[in-house]
Amino acid sequence: MQEVQNVELFINNKFVPASTKETFELSSPYTGEVVAKVAEASVDDVNTAVLAAQASFPAWSAMSPLERGRPLKKLGEKILAETQTLAGLEALSMGRPVGGYFDATYASVHFNYFGEAGYAQGHTSLNTPGFLNMSLKQPFGVVGVIIPWNAPLVFFSKKIAPAVAAGNCVVLKSSEKAPMTSWKVAQWIEECGFPPGVINVICGHGQTSGNAMSMHMKIRVISFTGSTATGRAIQIASAKSNLKKVVFELGGKGPAIVFDDADIDAAVAATEFSINYNSGQTCMANSRIYVQESIKKKFTEAFKRASSCRSLGDPSDPKVNHGPQADGAQYNTVLKYIELGKKSGSLVLDGTNEEAKHIVHPVVFTDQPEDAQIMKEEVFGPVVVINTFTEEQDVIDKANDTEYGLYAALFTKDLERAMRVSKKLESGMVGVNCASPTGSWDLPFGGYKGSGTGRESLLESMDHFLENKSIYFKVSGIGG
Ligand code: NAD
């Protein structure tokens, strides 16, 4: 029997229950056991957390980047040292396999990097005669962070680290489906040396606490990762309240294009991993694969073989690389799309489902009409469509015919074609002879169109959390 954890709100460096004392239960999708009682943050709790952040802002923002960096780096080291604990919590609460858990390393890199990179700089100008002008980059004050459940610690770190390094104080709301690692990391915040109120971590459902954050008059920036529908709701709330800045990383419906000159085995390996990693619960997964007509049979057969080799089962077993969907609701959503896909196209790999454990075995469709629901909407499960094309321009048009634009992949040995097609794809990221999640620390991460606004990376993220101020400084006798 698993010990049921009491997941509370972390405000002002103290764990507290929700002001209403309301809680909800979190169950393991694999065993069905209750693993935690989670505090449901109320509107009052959001206000309390924002007040704590506001109160700590003057002192925190007045520190030097060197001083602010020390607790960041300590937290980075602590997270790395606790990789196994963190991986175990995600496996338990949302079924993420411990084998291949990279989130703690990712988080540690972010806290370590921003622990040293908090030196914001504006510029100076002598281009106006009689003036020595300057621009300053300054923190906003209170930043709101709202994160999803599929890789919680990744989003926790890639948003909190640059925001606090820049001198802001943060209120983060974790996902109601995966609050465990945010709560665990909050337990180390004080011992790493963060003053009270700099990082506040609340949990609860989006409609209450998430909406209260989006509407809050004292939160000046919301950095959000999640679905496009929720991004839209947050943008509306921002417009209705204080026009807070919004930075969005949203959903995807990634295409992968395989030309007939490609290394087919390599393309199969990369695209199969992309869609089935984390049981298909990845924003940048290639859920639409377009193969050139002449290689359809060879590619599809190899893809089915690769998909059938996954090691399914208990996410806490390091040998397992395909666990359950995050919860019953996500499992049912995936099944709904499989039924829709059966009506609109051909099912060529029929994943058996294990209802009690919420596991969906990989599913492959072919010959789907381009306007089928399964081609247009994000499934967020191990479900792929393999369609065909003949001409280059035809496949570019198909790949771009979506409201999303996060990550596209293409496979070819023709380098000129690779450059030409990469340029034409409406996508924030393009993999050439590789597929998502392949990425790079120092290149912008984010999407075109409905997949987001703004870009995140080690080099760019801090700018989201800094205001620009121009100072026109008249100086007598300075000349032109
Ligand atoms: P979601 O939008 O349902 O929830 C995300 C967060 O928003 C949760 O914390 C939730 O409580 C909160 N929320 C819900 N309604 C809200 C509201 N009205 N106001 C404020 N907050 C609200 O998304 P999810 O199901 O947790 O995550 C899956 C989605 O996230 C997918 O669409 C996926 O593509 C996307 N995603 C995008 C990226 C990226 O980097 N682009 C990365 C991971 C996930």
TrEMBL record:
Domain of life: Eukaryota
Gene3D superfamilies reported for this sequence: Aldehyde Dehydrogenase, Chain A, domain 1 (3.40.605.10), Aldehyde Dehydrogenase, Chain A, domain 2 (3.40.309.10)
Catalytic activity: an aldehyde + NAD(+) + H2O = a carboxylate + NADH + 2 H(+)
Pfam families: Aldedh
EC number: 1.2.1.3
Domain (Aldehyde dehydrogenase) ranges: 16-471
Sorted UniProt keywords: Oxidoreductase
MF terms (GO), sorted A to Z: aldehyde dehydrogenase (NAD+) activity
Family: Belongs to the aldehyde dehydrogenase family.
PANTHER family: ALDEHYDE DEHYDROGENASE-RELATED (PTHR11699)
Protein name: aldehyde dehydrogenase (NAD(+))
